[in-house]
């Protein structure tokens, strides 16, 4: 299966920022774990991070043309207000799973609303970096 993992703003700073919320494992170890898991299960995976909304939208549109079969996305702060990202996700008729490292429902009020979740197949929230592996398992039918 061909998978795309998209990470929005500041996700590249896991292990650096707010360790009490996001943990101490760094972004490079997340990428390595996802690539290792995908390879061991026979899947093709691309992991992409950007602090720029347009770059994420470009990757989603590229996914349409390159035959991506499933998307895992942690939109970061774009979760709460990016209708452009939401519309890009809605344009693809493939399974998509939104992932959040922290439990956004136990945090500040503004984090409780996701404009992207309604166009995703499912959501994994508050399970740390393990949420990405669980999202991959769902997409690959494991």
UniProtKB/TrEMBL annotation:
GO biological process: amino acid biosynthetic process; aromatic amino acid family biosynthetic process; chorismate biosynthetic process; quinate catabolic process
Catalytic reaction annotation: 3-dehydroquinate = 3-dehydroshikimate + H2O
Annotated protein name in UniProt: 3-dehydroquinate dehydratase
Source organism of this protein record: Hungatella hathewayi WAL-18680
Gene Ontology terms, MF aspect: 3-dehydroquinate dehydratase activity
Pfam families, alphabetized: DHquinase_II (PF01220)
Record gene name: aroQ
Catalytic residues in the record: 22, 100
EC id: 4.2.1.10
Annotated positions for site Transition state stabilizer: 17
Quaternary context: Homododecamer.
Task performed by this protein: Catalyzes a trans-dehydration via an enolate intermediate.
Keywords: Amino-acid biosynthesis, Aromatic amino acid biosynthesis, Lyase
Listed pathway(s): Metabolic intermediate biosynthesis; chorismate biosynthesis; chorismate from D-erythrose 4-phosphate and phosphoenolpyruvate: step 3/7
InterPro entries: DHquinase_II, DHquinase_II_sf
Catalytic class of the enzyme: lyase
